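Students often ask why we bother encoding 3D structure as a string. The short answer is that it lets us treat folding as translation between two languages. Here is a chain of 296 residues written in the first language.
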Amino acid sequence: MRQHEAPTILRRPAGDLKVEAPVHRLSRRRLAVAAAVVFATVVAVLVALLVPQRTGTPTAPSWSGEGVPCRSEPLTHVHNPTRLTVVANCATVSGVVRKVQYRPNDGNVHLTVAVDEKFQRYLRSANQGLLNVEVIPPDARYVIIPSVGKHATFFGAWVLDRNERRAAELHPAWRIVPDGIPVAQATPTPTTGSGKLSVAVDMPTAVAIGEQFRVVVRAQRSAAAKTAASEVRVFAEITNAAGKGVRWKAATTNTLGTASMDFIALHAPGTFVVHFYASKDGQSVVVAKPLTVTRR
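And here it is in the second language, the structure alphabet:
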């Protein structure tokens, strides 16, 4: 009886094994990653070269005063000045006014300006191509406010506003010169047809620290007879003995010509001065009242 033969097992020589494919796949991955890194680096370099002022160290337009004084302390009378970082005490910029707005919460006139092309590089990303120009109440009587669509030159401090994602601003602007007007003549012309503006202030002369106190402002027009002046813009600033502002309020007179403002004496005992700036139709009135804060 024949014995069954054991089956023959065929073996492939070790040299014939194909192991290159995984190596090729790994190399392609590495090449893809390297290419992505190079691409990202090139893009970052191009962005840094093309828009350095929008993301890098801020700079400001130069000052060309042409008879306009430069201020050594530009944030004097600016409410809550710690939110602003001064890039240049004095800067000059020109452009077209796109919007004009009075904001009663701070008493400032805000102008949105599309600056001329040569000034675009000084704007930050947060500006979105537009510059905010602010005129504070103490300067209102010296500054012309151009109408929308007018081209003008603006003089003021170049700052970054922390509350506006560090957007660049001209804040404050203490002179605005519309095209066609000489600098020396670029001041508002008061309208006195309805009478001269006058203001009276009723407030305590002394309060205890931590005490709340009310200030009442009464505005009138004096022509043939005195009449209540409504819609008068009033800005109050409390300054300490060193002349530094410590509290600010803004209000507008009602139909009876009155405006009320409430303060709290939070600062240390001492002597202060409350300055009131009232304006309407190009007329401005400034009133100063002493205030003493005492210990309880």
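Translate back mentally: The first helix runs from residue 20 to 50. Keep this in mind for the problem set.
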